[in-house]
């Protein structure tokens, strides 16, 4: 079994696609459908990688990144923003908030795992 990955995503279809691709690649997948649940699961399970949607119902992904980075999460944990926000400056805003990388939606199933792993390996 590869690393444990927490997906924080409120959209059922996106959650299904991400978890399917990751499970097929032998990752252990944890799921959270909002920010508060994501923070709780992250601190209880200490996943190696966390995929964070930016648009969530209770708090945005920038706030989640910031809270994870400043509340005892291991520095080795890789945070990746996975978002449909693709405007100029969004990548920089995610990195400033504490994300290690940024992937745009819609994801491409054929390349998603390689893109994610390249962010993890570059860290």
From TrEMBL:
Keyword Disulfide bond in record: no
SMART domains reported in the protein's UniProt record: REC
4-aspartylphosphate: residues carrying this PTM: 53
Protein name stated in the entry: Response regulator
Recorded coiled-coil stretches: none
Keywords: Phosphoprotein
A Pfam family: Response_reg
Domain Response regulatory: 4-120
The keyword Phosphoprotein is assigned to this record: yes
InterPro entries named in the record: Bact_response_regulator (IPR050595), CheY-like_superfamily (IPR011006), Sig_transdc_resp-reg_receiver (IPR001789)
Organism: Postechiella marina
